[in-house]
């Protein structure tokens, strides 16, 4: 590609390119500056042979690569990509880049990151932060380098890099690093007595203790935490999914029993989650973690009672609650999962000795651990297949590997299993 300046001051860019059949083409473009001429040349080449002259931004450092890659990750218009990354996912990438990658490696030239050097960086992060943080950094760095290779900024194959062991040939240097082994899953099982005592602490002991300690001022929402624990145990939903349950997502069905009596059963549609992004703030996403995980769940009686109360007390407010969710704040807006997490942490700090006395490690009492408790209860009673369907997993191996052990006893319905395991917890 060459640039020449005509007598009238116009800059002309010329290039020699080859189309798909190998035929030589010579597009050109002109403009007031070299940049303008290059744009015109690119447009002319696009018409002739396609995007063979796509503009490449010279990137030299990890910081520059991260900035350029994030722009693409947020706004990927490639027609070959059927499912774009969700904005909250890219927000997570941006957070990892901002907190760990740029402070530690932002000024390093991208060609100087060898597998050996990257591995040392990940070891330091694992020691200073956590193994999970190191794996997140590794994942983001690998995605960045894959994109750099695709952009022609880094050789995909045959790159010779010098390490302390000599010259090695690599492609993406991050892929040659070791992924850290994360801690083994802690199986968390709660029985009805433990859950009943936890609810007793939240509903009765905590309000009295807090009132005695702080006679005036805002009080924690004790009822919200208790209701949320029951809903989580009854539906096995992830932390931000119960607060996304809408009025229309709850269905009541009358079922005739063998003795002729009627009972009311409650079905919940697990079809959304509350998320927060930098651009949109808090909003309801119209699918759980994955689209395929949408499902109807018949809930046990203890959760049906809470849902019935929420439905009965619900007042539509299109302005403040446009999605018509059941869990709302005092001002009528949708709830944020972070506030519920804060409530749970506050409870754990307040009652750590009492929890330890009943065999519950306060550190492991989280909404995610309650989901594990549901999986363990259902798989032990109804089978891992039922637990898989209840949790919305695509594979039993996921359920077994992260949430539940394979049981020996098999029955049919998850709600019946939960009513059996947690009978009387809301008495």
Lay out the secondary structure.
Layout: E1 2-5, E2 11-14, E3 17-18, E4 24-25, E5 28-31, H1 34-49, H2 62-74, H3 87-105, H4 115-128, H5 131-150, E6 159-163, E7 166-170, H6 192-213, H7 222-235, E8 250-256, E9 262-270, E10 273-277, E11 281-285, E12 295-298, H8 301-313, H9 337-350, H10 352-357, H11 367-382, H12 384-391, H13 396-402, H14 414-421
Helix pairs in contact: 2-3, 3-5, 4-5, 6-7, 7-8, 7-11, 11-12, 11-14, 12-13
The first-level CATH class name of the largest domain: Mainly Alpha
CATH architecture label of the largest domain: Orthogonal Bundle
Strand order of the largest sheet: 1-2-5
Number of helices: 14
Beta-strand percentage? 5-15%
- Give the total of beta strands: 12
Overall 3D geometry?
A: elongated
Query: What's the CATH superfamily of the largest domain, by name?
Result: Intergrase catalytic core
* Oligomer class: single chain
Give the termini separation. Answer: 80 Å
Average of the residue pLDDT scores: 80
